Task: structure prediction
Amino acid sequence: MKYLCLIYEDESKRGTRSKEETTAIMGEYGAFTEGIKKSGKYVAGEALQPTQTGTTVRVRQGKISTTDGPFAETKEQLGGFYLINATDLNEAIQVASGIPAARTGSVEVRPIWVLGAQESSSRQTA
Amino acid sequence: MTGDVASNVRERIDALYRSDSRRVLATLIRLLGSFDSAEEAMHDAFTAALDSWPAEGVPENPRAWLISTGRFKAIDRLRRAARFDAALAGVAEQLEDSAPPASDFDDNLEDDRLRLIFTCCHPALSPDARIALTLREVCGLETEQIARAFLIPAPTLAQRIVRAKGKIRDAHIPYQVPSRDELSGRLDVVLHVLYLVFNEGYSASFGDNVVRHDLSAEAIRLGRLLVELLPEPEAIGLLALMLLHDARRLARTSAEGELILLDEQDRSLWNREQIQEGLALVDQALASRRFGPYTLQAAIAAVHAEATTAAATDWRQIIGIYDVLLRLETSPVIELNRAAAIAMHDGPETGLALIDAILARGELADYHLAHSARADLCRRLGRTEEAIAAYQRALALTTQAPERRFIERRMAELAAHLG
Result:
C-alpha cells in the first residue's frame, strides 16, 4: 500500500537556523532517505521552496486565474498530489490547470527546492 | 581631452542613463538570466563609461557598448565569486560561451522591454508587487518615490520588491513575452499597471509637482509599444486616454506651478497634434465594438478635447458615456465624475444631490476630490459656509502641495466673501 507523508513545519525557522544546524539536519534527512531506499520503502521525496514562491491556480468558467502565494481556503483540504516536470512556472501553471480539481478547488504550485543550488545557476532564457 | 569636452561626455552619460538605462537593463536581464545580476552589471557598465569615455570618447553605439561591458563585468563578478563557490564557475563559462552577435542588442531591444514588462506584470505576482516592480525596473523610479506614491513605508516597499524578484527567480517565472493565446489576458494586467503609472505622473500624489512628465511620457511610450505589438481595443483605448490627458499638460499648471482646472484652462496651450492622434485612436477602439472602460474614459476625454471652449463642452454626450461606463464597471469615483458632469448640464443642485448620496454611502469619505467637488457646487449655490467646510475636509485629505494651495485659495476667496 502507498502512503503520502506530508511534512509541516514553521518555515520561518529555516531562515534562522545556523549553518551547522542546517548541515546537521540535511545529514539526518540524507541518512533517513538512504535508509528507506535500502528497505525498499522509498518512492519519492522532495523539499519545497517556501510558501512565498507558491502560486495558487484555479480554473473557473474555463478561465485560468492565478494568485500569488499558497492556497488559503479553509473549506478546502489536501486531497492529492502530482509531482511534475515543467520548464518554467508558466508551463507548470498550464499543467496544473488541467488537473480536474483546479476547476472545483485550488491547486497550489510550489517549486521544488534543489538543495545546494545557488540562485545564479538558474539561467532563464527568453 | 579638455575639461570642457570631458564634462560634456559626463553630461552625455547622464542623459544616456536617463534615457536608456532601462533598455540596457532589460537586455542584460535576458542575457544574464537574473534581475539582480543585471542591475549590478548595468551599474558597473555606466561606472566603466564614466571612467573611460571622457578620455576615449563616446563610442559609436553607446547602448551596445554598455550592454556588452555589463555582460563582461557580470562574468568577471561570477569568476571572482567562483573562487568561493565552484558551481558559479560553470555559470560564468556558460555565459562566456553564449556571447550574442553584435546585431543582437539592437534587434532585441524592444522585445526585451516587453519581456521585462510582461515579467514584472506576471499574474503569479501579487498586484502590489507588479506595480512596485514595474515602476522600479521598467520605469526606473527609486524605491523611496514609489513608497511615497503609495503612502507606505519605504522598507515595506523595498521588501515587496525583494520578494517579487525572489519569486521570479525561485519559482522560475520565465523572461518572455506571453504566447498568442495568453497575450490578451496578460495584457489586461499590464494595462492596469500602465494606467496607474500614467496617473502617478499626471497628478503626482507627493511633493510639489503636479505633473511628473517623465512618468506620463514613460507610460505613453510603453503604451505605444504595446499597441504596436498587440493592437487590442483596450490597449488602443488606454493609449488614447493617456495622450488626450497628457495633451492638456501645459495648460494644467501656471508658470508658478499652480493648478488650473479644466474649465479655466487656456485651450490654446493644448497639444493639438496629440489630441488628433488621441481622437483617431478612440475612433479606432470604439469601431472594434470590443472596447472596455479605458476606451470609454478616452471617449469622455475626446469630448472635452473637441470643445473649443469650456462652455461649448457637450456635457450630455459625456453623461451618456458615463452611463455606459457604469454599466461595465461600478465605481463610486466614476459615479462622482458623472455627478460633476450632471451638475454642469443640469445645474449644481442636481449634481450636489447625487454627490451627497454617494458620500452618504461612505465609500468616498476619504477621497479629497469628492469633498472638493461638493465644495465647488456649494460655492456655486452660494452656500458659502458649507463650501468652506467641504474644502476643509478636502484639505485634510490631500498631501499634494499645488492641490492644497488651490483649495486654500478657494477657501480664502470664500472667507473674504463672508467677511
User: Anything to note?
Assistant: The mean pLDDT of chain B is 89. Residues 1-109 of chain B form one domain. Residues 3-32 of chain B form the longest helix (30 residues). Chain B is about 75% helix and 0% strand.
